[in-house]
Amino acid sequence: MQDKGDEIVFIILTTTVLLFILAVLIITILYLYQRRQMFYFKKIDSLKQDFEKELLHTQIELHENLLNSFSKEIHDNIGLSLTLAKLNLNTLNSKEDISNKSKIEMSINLLSKAISDLRNLSKGLNSDRINKNGLVKSLEEEIETIKLSKFLKISLEVNGVANFLDPQKELLLFRIIQESLNNIIKHSNASKARIILHYNEFNFNLKILDNGSGFDTACVNHKKGSGLFNITSRIKVMNGSHSIHSSKKGTCIDIIIPY
């Protein structure tokens, strides 16, 4: 009887150990499967983000090529045509026809302004010029152009040492500021705007502020091709982050870009 009892105990213990081992094995397999599944989903997500970033980069590159082409077309063809028209009017101006003289002078002044505006537009669109001059100088030129139009009072503040960033980042930041200023002029009813560049030790901080009427950030259009979409997509390409604070007293766009 004692032997039979010991045998039953042995069987129970053996079964318990085997069940425990089996349970550990099942848990281990489930854990490894879950880890592998998580790794797989992370990999898929990473590939998706890389693909989206590459797609955005390609779209921006195509956009820049188009702007460069447009800039050269303005400079080479339209600018030349207007200059020739101005020269022709100058020759007419030498004739003593009092009735037409004032009209000719007005036409010359309008053509001069159109040529100047087109040259400034061409400079702003040309990415090679922006990369050559750097962000700060390019912004100073852009701000002077806007000041001449008298649509908006703009100030530029540069904090820290204004080092050259990666050329691609400088170009993207310049386009972000252009897009923001365009939105301010067209939609905000602002009279003043401030651009603050802060060169920190580990990142670059850009702030764009205005005293306009503001907008509802929850309802603003994020659709492809909209101003805000263009801004956020460029920030994404640079692995940056941003926040937008808007009220009836104005708007602040705060952007941080890692070096």
| Unreliable stretches covering 5 or more consecutive residues | none
In round numbers, the mean pLDDT is 77
Which term fits the overall shape?
Answer: elongated
Proportion of beta-strand residues? 15-25%
The number of domains is 2
Helix content: 55-70%
Number of strands: 5
3D structure, described in words:
This protein has 259 residues and is of the alpha+beta class. It folds into two domains: 1-125; 135-259, 2-Layer Sandwich (Heat Shock Protein 90), CATH 3.30.565. The protein is 68% helix and 15% strand. It has helices spanning 2-93, 98-125, 127-133, 135-149, 167-188, 227-237; strands spanning 153-159, 192-199, 203-210, 241-247, 250-258. A five-stranded mixed β-sheet has the order 1-2-3-5-4, covered by helices on one side. Strand 4 (241-247) and strand 5 (250-258) form a beta hairpin. Helix 1 (2-93) crosses helix 6 (227-237), helix 4 runs parallel beside helix 5 and helix 5 packs antiparallel against helix 6. The longest helix is centred in the N-terminal third of the chain and has 92 residues, at 2-93. It starts with a helix and ends with a strand.
